[in-house]
Specification:
- The protein has 15 helices and no strands.
- With about 350 residues, it is mainly alpha-helical.
- It starts with 20 loop residues before the first helix and ends with a helix.
- The C terminus is likely disordered.
- Helix content is about 65%, strand content about 0%.
- It has one domain.
- Its main location: membrane.
Length: about 350
């Protein structure tokens, strides 16, 4: 998942730095490919004997260690947190990171990986509904059209017309992942206005790691399972290698590539390219895990993603949404597109 902002402005005091659209596209495509591979890498580990909770623990814990060491050595100032900021970081880590990953793997263990990630991708609809009924912001009619399309697509994916043939617990876990994903964006909207995104990701991972380790302590993972071979397409890698790969490639690298890409691309382009993630996950699951969707589910997937995209592209400025970084990544000069405005309500001083 990649934070985007639809409301940006230049800061006259910053030094302009040319953006590279091609670099941004390449980085965002790589981020989507890596994010999309997480379920495909994690499911063979679960089929080999690990629980979804254990896979989530391994992914988040390894990523937290890598990020904490990397940021601590290269930019320790980003790890400083004021006392009043911990509550937001706790919510971000527990819901936006731990909740999303835990429920996603719970869903992927019971339903096809492609279905699990499609369920998670209904989060823009949930964010839009939150904005309408909690923040009381009027939504334009194209957004309502997008919401309707997304719900129709979800019904087709779940094959409701056939009497709900999907595993109920898997379906509920996927919906829970979508709720946590919506929280990720809503909390991120507030967080990155005052935090560097790399700081938020790092502390979010650390907090999430503590939480999931309480649920599934790493020392409870059987060593025999970790050393055993998993069925991953034509290959038979050890389970521990899949866990390290999903942590480093599908988490650390994916987040860093996504954050960097947003310095070169507008939110509208990022929203379109982000839809590669469920397509990648579904394609990889079909090629490597033999999880094929029926034609109704494929149709539903495109309807759902089209609706979600319409919701994102027609979001009003007052919706807010996740904002962008307030300072450059280590080693980069600031540029005019790195200072983002807050939502209209915040600019007017409303609560």
């Amino acid at each position: 998942m990649i934070m985007t902002s639809s409301d940006t402005t230049a800061d006259a005091t910053t030094v302009a730095r040319p953006r590279s659209r091609s670099r941004g596209i390449v980085l965002l495509v790589l981020a989507s490919l890596c994010f999309g591979s997480s379920g495909v890498l994690g499911k063979p580990a679960m089929l080999s004997g690990l629980t979804p909770e254990q896979v989530a623990t391994a992914r988040i814990s390894i990523a937290a260690v890598v990020l904490l060491l990397g940021v601590g050595l290269t930019r320790p100032a980003l790890l400083r947190v004021r006392r009043g900021q911990w509550r937001l970081l706790l919510g971000y880590g527990l819901l936006g990171v731990a909740g999303v990953q835990l429920f996603y793997f719970l869903a992927a263990a019971r339903v096809p990986v492609g279905i699990a990630i499609l369920l998670e991708f209904t989060s823009p609809v949930l964010v839009a509904l939150w904005v309408r009924f909690v923040r009381r912001v009027r939504l334009p009619w194209p957004m309502w059209t997008g919401i309707g399309l997304a719900l129709l697509g979800l019904a087709l994916v779940a094959r409701v017309h056939e009497g709900l043939v999907l595993d109920v617990l898997g379906l509920l876990a996927g919906i829970a992942a979508a709720l946590c994903s919506a929280a990720y964006f809503l909390i991120g909207e507030q967080g990155v206005a005052s935090h560097h995104p790399l700081s938020m990701v790092t502390w979010g991972m650390v907090i999430a790691a503590v939480a999931v380790c309480l649920i599934a302590p790493p020392w409870t993972m059987p060593s025999s399972t970790l050393l055993s071979s998993a069925e991953f397409g034509p290959w038979r890698p050890p389970v521990w290698l899949l866990l390290v790969t999903v942590a480093v490639l599908s988490t650390v690298f994916a987040y860093l590539a996504g954050i960097t890409a947003l310095r070169h691309l507008p939110a509208s382009t990022a929203s379109v390219l982000a839809l590669l993630e469920p397509l990648v996950a579904t394609s990889m699951a079909w090629a490597l895990l033999g999880e094929a969707l029926v034609w109704v589910q494929i149709l539903g997937a495109f309807v759902l993603l089209g609706g979600a995209l319409l919701v994102q592209l027609t979001a009003p400025a007052a919706q807010g949404g996740p904002t962008g970084p307030v300072e450059p990544l280590p080693g980069e000069a600031p540029s005019e597109d790195r200072v983002f405005r807050r939502s209209r309500k915040e600019r007017q001083g409303e609560p």
